């Protein structure tokens, strides 16, 4: 197989980073990205892109840690280079605060982020309703810049990108040898995964350049994440809600919750409301399978179900998916050799 | 009772406000007048980035450390007030970097979350082997000075755009107290060989992805002669020049290149930052701040002068502690003149 043709379906952070990893591990592959949406209209564009992992109940912790470590290391290097501003990657420091004692004093990622330590009494005075806190420095991937930067790197490798709604993976079997499914919430319909469910998140993106520190309530519901041009205020976690329309009452509620943590936000300007559906699952599905229909086989690599943690583990899962693509290629080459015998 | 304040930088305005707030109700006849050649946005305080941070090596001056602390605590208390944004006040974290291990600074327990850098953090800054991380405050002069001015105006303080050439000029005609907050130009009012310019130059850029201050230190070349990057609410300040004895307020191309090259080396992402301005200013440097009373004989009159100048590169950092101290000196003067109407106590 001289030049395996790989189709990556999905152009959010998972699709684009997976496509990029495939071009890195398999330079002879011809990679094409197909998606009905590209930045700035993907779920990834709504997210703040903070590198603070989400815990997947059914994925072994060591695997989650490896994914996070790989992602952090990759982005750390970019943040420290001349490309940082173009890629939208920057360091940000701040606090995760708790009203009641956190389940774990030391989360698995505490030695991966920078300078992780408990907050001092003096720091906690800023948050009279919270009694515990963790201070650390982590990375943020601003979207759209990060997705645009990934697209630019993909184009440089010769990867083609097309706007196309794929309704059935079998549509692709004639043109492509391998299909990589990075469709996020779309996988619910595309591959009929009943274990995948939306967790609706509404956020506000505001102009408040004096906010330099992130603040996150350990309950995951209220957060303030300063980005390059805007601060993301969140949020909601509405399990099972498919609505992409902003809700005015929710907007008010998010704003109030965030102002109670950071009163200066009262002066924030230019409030933009966005909604995204976190493609949630008990474990991220990074897995290969061979679909079969009427004697025809179609190798598929799945990489979806990252829920609230897409940015935090994207590079790690992309690399794993790229390795699975390699396995598919080897399997195809083996079977075509057998066919020749 | 008329009080003349000379200087409308952060020192002049805050000293005036402190005195006004503390004594107006006790002394209804109190009338403050501020005289200055430059007002915001043309003062030295407007050009400074606005980071609260004293010098890293203690000058052996405990009083200054206490004034710094008083200022920090006062500002921290204002952080959640509705005025904070208008004041240009907000929290910021960042890094101090060294090429050899420094002693911990006098202010380590004043700021929030002071700690040493981890090895992984130091990887961000090749060439630097030690460092600190802490959370401090930004107080942007370009917002703070207008805010102080508004408060003063509301309280009936009058402003006069005038270059004062002598204490005599402002101390006639019922003015009993003069507050000398004239910063770099104090030497023109009264010779002070200890007051020297510490010339600085900065480049202003748009780099909104930079969320931390980064101050490098070269203990051999001295304070602020090593690159620093300080992000503000509208632009990021790049600097690293401290030229003792240099009175030039013109931007130097040589200094520009040195600042640009050294800051881009420190933070490669800055190479893509757009330059939006440049500025040079003179830090009013002195071995210690001059904050004291002096009785000056002017013709057949005696005037009390309260000196409050020589704050070098830490004016915003120390201003409130000094303003309170100046107000205390003013209170002493009032007691001596028995202006406060309280039962006469022992003469101080």
UniProtKB/TrEMBL annotation, chain A:
Example of a GO MF term: D-aspartate oxidase activity
Record key words, sorted: Cytoplasm, FAD, Flavoprotein, Oxidoreductase, Peroxisome, Signal
SUPFAM superfamilies: FAD-linked reductases, C-terminal domain, Nucleotide-binding domain
EC number: 1.4.3.1
GO cellular component: cytosol; peroxisomal matrix
Pfam families named among the record's database cross-references: DAO (PF01266)
InterPro entries per the UniProt record, alphabetical: D-amino_acid_oxidase_CS, DAO, FAD-dep_OxRdtase
Binding-site list for FAD: 43-44, 166, 183
Residues binding D-dopa, per UniProt: 223, 278
Cofactor(s), names only, from the UniProt record: FAD
GO biological process: D-amino acid catabolic process; L-aspartate catabolic process
Main location: cytoplasm
Secretion signal, residue range per the UniProt entry: 1-19
Subcellular location: Cytoplasm, Cytosol; Peroxisome matrix
Domain of life of the source: Eukaryota
Catalytic activity: D-aspartate + O2 + H2O = oxaloacetate + H2O2 + NH4(+); D-glutamate + O2 + H2O = 2-oxoglutarate + H2O2 + NH4(+)
Domain spans labelled FAD dependent oxidoreductase: 5-322
Cross-referenced PANTHER family: D-AMINO ACID OXIDASE (PTHR11530), D-ASPARTATE OXIDASE (PTHR11530:SF11)
Family recorded in the similarity comment: Belongs to the DAMOX/DASOX family.
Function text: Selectively catalyzes the oxidative deamination of acidic amino acids. Suppresses the level of D-aspartate in the brain, an amino acid that can act as an agonist for glutamate receptors. Protects the organism from the toxicity of D-amino acids. May also function in the intestine.
Protein name: D-aspartate oxidase
Species whose genome carries this gene: Melospiza melodia (Song sparrow)
Gene behind the chain: Ddo
From TrEMBL, chain B:
GO cellular component, one term: peroxisomal matrix
Catalytic activity, as annotated: D-alanine + O2 + H2O = pyruvate + H2O2 + NH4(+); D-leucine + O2 + H2O = 4-methyl-2-oxopentanoate + H2O2 + NH4(+); D-lysine + O2 + H2O = 6-amino-2-oxohexanoate + H2O2 + NH4(+); D-dopa + O2 + H2O = 3-(3,4-dihydroxyphenyl)pyruvate + H2O2 + NH4(+)
Keywords: Cell projection, Cytoplasm, FAD, Flavoprotein, Oxidoreductase, Peroxisome, Phosphoprotein, S-nitrosylation, Secreted, Signal, Synapse
Binding site for FAD: 44-45, 49-51, 164, 312-317
GO molecular function: D-amino-acid oxidase activity; FAD binding
Amino acids binding D-serine: 228, 283, 313
Residues in FAD dependent oxidoreductase domain copies: 2-329
Major location category of this protein: cytoplasm
Signal peptide feature range: 1-16
Protein's name in the database: D-amino-acid oxidase
Gene name for this UniProt entry: Dao
């Amino acid at each position: 197989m001289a030049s395996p043709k790989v189709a990556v379906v999905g152009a959010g952070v998972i699709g684009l980073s997976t496509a990029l990893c495939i071009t890195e591990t398999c330079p002879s592959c011809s990679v094409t990205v197909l998606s009905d949406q590209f930045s700035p209209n993907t779920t990834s564009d709504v997210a703040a892109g903070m590198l603070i992992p989400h815990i997947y109940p059914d994925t072994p912790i060591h695997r989650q840690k490896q994914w996070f470590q790989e992602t952090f290391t990759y982005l750390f290097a970019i943040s420290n280079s001349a490309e940082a501003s173009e890629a939208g990657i920057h360091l940000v420091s701040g606090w995760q605060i708790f009203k009641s004692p956190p389940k774990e004093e030391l989360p698995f990622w505490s030695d991966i982020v920078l300078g992780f330590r408990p907050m001092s009494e003096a720091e906690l005075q800023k948050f009279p309703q919270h009694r515990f806190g963790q201070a650390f420095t982590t990375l943020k991937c601003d979207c759209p810049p990060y997705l645009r930067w990934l697209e630019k790197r993909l184009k440089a490798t010769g990867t083609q990108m097309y706007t196309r709604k794929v309704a059935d993976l079998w549509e692709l079997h004639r043109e492509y040898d391998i299909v990589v499914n990075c469709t996020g919430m779309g996988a619910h319909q595309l591959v009929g995964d009943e274990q995948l469910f939306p967790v609706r998140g509404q956020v506000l993106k505001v102009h408040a350049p004096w906010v330099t520190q992130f603040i996150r309530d350990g309950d995951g519901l209220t957060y303030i994440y300063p980005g390059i041009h805007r601060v993301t205020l969140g949020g909601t976690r509405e399990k099972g809600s498919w609505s992409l329309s902003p809700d005015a009452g929710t907007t008010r509620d998010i704003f109030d919750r965030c102002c109670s943590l950071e009163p200066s936000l009262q002066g924030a300007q230019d409030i933009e409301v966005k909604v995204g559906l976190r493609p949630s699952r008990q474990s991220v599905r990074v897995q290969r399978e061979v679909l079969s229909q009427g004697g025809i086989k179609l190798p598929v690599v799945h990489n979806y179900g990252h829920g609230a943690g897409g940015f935090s583990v994207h590079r790690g899962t992309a690399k794993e998916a790229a390795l699975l693509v390699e396995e598919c290629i080897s399997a195809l080459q083996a079977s075509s050799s057998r066919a020749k015998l | 009772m008329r009080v003349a304040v000379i200087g409308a930088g952060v020192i002049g305005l805050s000293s005036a406000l402190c005195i006004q707030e503390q004594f107006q109700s006790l002394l209804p006849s109190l009338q403050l007048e501020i005289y200055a050649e430059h007002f915001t946005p043309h003062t030295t305080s407007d050009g400074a980035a606005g980071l609260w941070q004293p010098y890293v090596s203690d000058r052996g001056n405990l009083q200054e450390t206490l004034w710094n602390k008083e200022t920090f605590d006062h500002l921290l208390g204002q952080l959640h007030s509705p005025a904070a944004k208008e004041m240009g006040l907000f929290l910021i974290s960042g890094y101090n970097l060294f090429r050899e291990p420094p002693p911990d600074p006098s202010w380590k327990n004043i700021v929030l979350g002071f700690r040493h850098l981890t090895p992984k953090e130091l990887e961000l800054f090749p060439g630097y082997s030690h460092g600190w991380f802490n959370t401090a405050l930004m107080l942007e002069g370009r917002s703070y000075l207008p805010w102080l001015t508004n408060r003063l105006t509301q309280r009936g303080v009058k402003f006069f755009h005038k270059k004062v050439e002598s204490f005599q000029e402002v101390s006639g005609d019922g003015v009993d107290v003069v507050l000398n907050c004239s910063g770099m130009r104090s030497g023109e009012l009264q010779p002070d060989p200890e007051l020297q310019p510490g010339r600085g130059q900065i480049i202003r850029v748009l780099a909104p992805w930079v969320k931390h201050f980064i101050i490098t230190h070269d203990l051999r070349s001295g304070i602020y002669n090593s690159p620093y990057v300080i992000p503000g609410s509208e632009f990021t300040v790049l600097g690293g020049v401290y030229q003792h004895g240099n009175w030039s307020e013109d931007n130097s191309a040589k200094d520009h290149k040195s600042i640009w090259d050294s800051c881009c080396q420190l933070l490669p992402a800055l190479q893509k930052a757009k330059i939006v301005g440049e500025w040079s200013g003179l830090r009013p440097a002195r071995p210690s701040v001059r904050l004291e009373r002096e009785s000056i004989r002017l013709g057949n009159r005696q005037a009390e002068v309260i000196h409050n100048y020589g704050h070098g590169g830490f004016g915003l950092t120390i201003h409130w502690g000094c303003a309170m101290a100046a107000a205390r000196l003013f209170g002493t003067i009032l007691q001596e003149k028995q202006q406060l109407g309280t039962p006469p106590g022992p003469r101080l």
